[in-house]
Write a structure and sequence with these properties.
This protein has about 260 residues and is an alpha+beta fold. It is built from seven helices and 15 strands. Strand 8 and strand 9 form a beta hairpin. The protein is globular and about 50 Å long. Pathway: Amino-acid biosynthesis; L-histidine biosynthesis; L-histidine from 5-phospho-alpha-D-ribose 1-diphosphate: step 8/9.
Length: about 260
């Protein structure tokens, strides 16, 4: 990206990811009290401190921007630019000492994801996708190297992943189970890393339910910039009002086949 606006946006996103990592890594694999939120998901001091650090940077460098965060709520969602923040995606992985948790950052401009970042502090991998300010070209990188989704077009050839069978309601599980058993390989676990793997071409499908905007908008920006497709189960673009059911695929052909198999 050569335009100043894009460079500045990426630099700010990287500053947020650096701040989140500095706080979360300080707590990783240390004894932490675990709090259960109203939705029964766990949260720790690490999650809350990391998001607070990100918000402090935005207060200084983007005071008019909106924020939609997992731990500290939302503000100015009608702003021209909205930052969607998940300081630790995969809190259960974090709590259990697994390295497969990350920081997710999405930037909405005009209701569309312009930048998406998946930062994996333990793995030292930073994945990001960014569109030009005019909505034209896009680029996706991992640690400075270009990445591209695979060319897989058939369910029978696809490698599919989701975080856990536990995320599905019974009817959704039945649909996912039938689809995934047709695939060449299915894997569980990895949280946000599955979306990065799709952008990098080693996973072809991610299908999940029960997600929130801070779970999917950062990955959406990365996957789209890498040439993949990501929507809800009805094939609609993802946004702040989506229902939390997500289908990400390496190619439009595979995406259409997955939607059909899910009964969309």
């Amino acid at each position: 990206m050569t335009d100043t606006n894009s460079r500045d946006l990426l630099q700010l996103a990287c500053a947020l990811a650096d701040a989140a990592a500095a706080h979360s890594m300080r707590y990783f694999r240390t004894p932490l009290p675990i709090i259960t939120k109203n939705d029964q998901s766990p949260v720790t001091l690490a999650d809350r401190d990391a998001e607070a650090a990100m918000r402090a940077i935005l207060a200084e460098r983007g005071p008019s921007d909106g924020i939609y965060g997992e731990e500290h709520g939302s503000e100015r969602l009608d702003a021209g630019r909205v930052w969607v923040l998940d300081p630790i995606d995969g809190t259960r992985s974090f709590i259990t000492g697994s390295p497969l948790w990350g920081t997710l950052i999405g930037v909405l401009e005009g209701g569309r994801v312009r930048l998406g970042m998946v930062d994996m502090p333990v793995l030292r991998e930073r994945w990001w996708g960014l569109r030009d300010a005019d909505g034209g070209g896009a680029i996706a990188l991992r640690n400075g190297q270009p990445v591209q989704a695979s060319e897989c077009t058939r369910i029978e050839d696809a490698r599919i992943v989701c975080t856990s069978p536990d995320i599905f309601a019974p009817d959704d599980w039945q649909a996912f189970d039938a689809l995934s058993k047709r695939c060449a390989m299915r894997r569980f676990g990895g949280d946000c890393y599955g979306y990065a793997q799709l952008a990098g071409g080693t996973i072809d499908l991610v299908v999940e339910t029960g997600l929130q905007p801070y779970d999917y908008l950062g990955p959406a920006g990365l996957i789209e910039a890498a040439g993949g497709v990501i929507t809800d189960w009805q094939g609609r673009p993802l946004g702040l009002q989506s229902d939390g059911r997500v289908v990400a695929a390496a190619t439009p052909q595979l995406h259409r086949a997955a939607l059909q198999a899910l009964g969309a």
